[in-house]
Q: What sequence folds into this?
C-alpha cells in the first residue's frame, strides 16, 4: 500500500504551568491518505483544534509544547524541524483555513498583499506577478470583482467573503495538505454550501488532502472519506465515514449521532449528551467518557481503555465494543 501523506503517531501536546499540566492532546494517532478528506469531530474542548495547530507547529509558546510523538509529512517528521524549516512548510506544503478569518487575516494589509506575500515567499514571484496570481485565485474561489477585492481590507468583506479569501490564500501554493478548522462556523447555510463546494472542487482538481476539523456531523457526512472522533484529547473511534455513520461502536460516537436533528421524526426535545467534557487539567483515571456514559461499568473507571482494532481500518477505545 502507498504511504499515507500524513501520519500522526502518539501525539501529545501539553500546556505546562506552575500549578497544573493541561493535556490538550494526549496520545493521538491518525493518518491522511493522498487526496483524501479526514474529518475530525467532537465537542468543544475535545482537542480538535489543538491537534490541527500541532500539525502546523503553531502551539502557543512558551507554556504549550509538543512533548511526545511524531508528525510525518511524506515521511519527514515535522516535530524535528527548526522554526525556519517549518516556515518553508507552512503555506507551501500545508495550508490552513483558520476558524475565525477576521482574526487570522491582517487587518492593516489589503487582501491582495496578504495572498501575494505567500506567493512571493514560497514561489519567488515579483510583486506584479503575485498580484496577478492573487486576482486569479480570488476569481477561482468565486469573487466576481476580484480586481477590486485585491485592494480592499478584511473589514470591508463579509464573513463568507473573508472565508473565501482565506481559502484562496491557503491554496495559493497548491499545498499537499489543507487543514480546515471549522471552515463553515458562523456562516449562513448558503455560504456554507458554497465553501464546501469550493473545498471539494479544490481537492478534485489539485489532489490536495484535507483535514476537516468540525463539530458538524452533517458536514463530515458530506465531505469526509475517513473520520476520527475525539474526546478528552484522545481519538476514541476512527474508521471510514461509512463505518462510523452506519455502525458507530463507541458510546460517545453513538451519542453524537443521536443528537443530530432528524426532520421526519416527531420529537419534543432534541437529544443532548448529559454533563460536560472533563477538564484537560484533571482527567479521570479510567475512560474519560465514563461520567457521561449510559453504559458505564465499574471497570471503565479503573484503567484507560486502549484504542483497539475491531476490523480493518476501524478502531475504538472502549472495553464494551
A:
Amino acid at each position: 500500500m502507498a504511504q499515507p501523506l500524513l501520519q500522526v503517531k502518539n501525539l501529545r501536546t501539553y500546556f505546562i504551568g506552575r500549578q497544573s499540566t493541561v493535556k490538550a492532546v494526549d496520545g493521538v494517532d491518525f493518518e491522511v491518505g493522498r487526496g483524501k478528506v479526514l474529518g475530525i469531530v467532537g465537542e468543544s474542548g475535545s482537542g480538535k483544534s489543538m491537534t490541527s495547530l500541532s500539525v502546523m507547529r503553531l502551539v502557543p509558546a512558551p507554556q504549550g509544547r509538543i512533548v511526545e510523538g511524531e508528525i510525518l509529512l511524506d515521511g519527514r517528521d515535522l516535530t524535528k524541524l527548526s522554526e525556519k524549516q517549518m516556515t518553508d512548510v507552512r503555506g507551501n506544503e500545508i495550508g490552513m483555513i483558520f476558524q475565525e478569518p477576521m482574526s487570522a487575516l491582517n487587518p492593516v494589509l489589503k487582501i491582495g498583499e496578504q495572498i501575494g506575500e505567500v506567493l512571493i515567499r514560497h514561489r519567488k514571484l515579483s510583486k506584479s506577478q503575485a498580484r496577478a496570481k492573487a486576482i486569479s485565485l480570488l476569481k477561482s474561489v468565486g469573487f466576481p470583482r476580484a480586481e477590486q477585492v485585491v485592494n480592499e481590507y478584511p473589514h470591508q468583506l463579509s464573513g463568507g467573503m473573508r472565508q473565501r479569501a482565506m481559502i484562496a490564500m491557503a491554496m495559493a501554493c497548491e499545498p499537499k495538505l489543507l487543514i480546515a478548522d471549522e471552515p463553515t462556523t458562523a456562516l449562513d447555510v448558503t455560504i456554507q454550501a458554497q465553501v464546501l463546494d469550493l473545498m471539494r472542487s479544490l481537492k478534485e482538481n489539485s489532489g490536495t488532502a484535507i483535514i476537516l476539523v468540525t463539530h458538524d456531523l452533517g458536514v463530515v457526512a458530506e465531505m469526509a472519506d475517513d473520520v476520527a472522533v475525539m474526546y478528552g484529547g484522545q481519538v476514541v473511534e476512527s474508521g471510514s465515514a461509512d463505518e462510523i455513520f452506519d455502525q458507530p461502536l463507541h458510546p460517545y460516537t453513538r451519542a453524537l449521532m443521536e443528537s443530530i436533528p432528524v426532520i421526519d421524526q416527531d420529537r419534543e426535545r432534541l437529544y443532548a449528551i448529559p454533563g460536560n467534557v472533563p477538564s484537560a487539567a484533571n482527567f479521570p483515571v479510567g475512560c474519560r467518557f465514563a461520567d457521561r456514559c449510559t453504559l458505564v461499568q465499574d471497570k471503565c473507571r479503573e484503567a484507560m481503555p486502549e484504542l483497539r482494532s475491531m476490523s480493518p481500518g476501524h478502531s475504538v477505545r472502549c472495553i464494551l465494543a
About this structure: The two ends are 28 Å apart (CA to CA). Residues 251 and 293 are 7 Å apart (CA to CA). DSSP finds eleven helices and twelve strands in the chain.
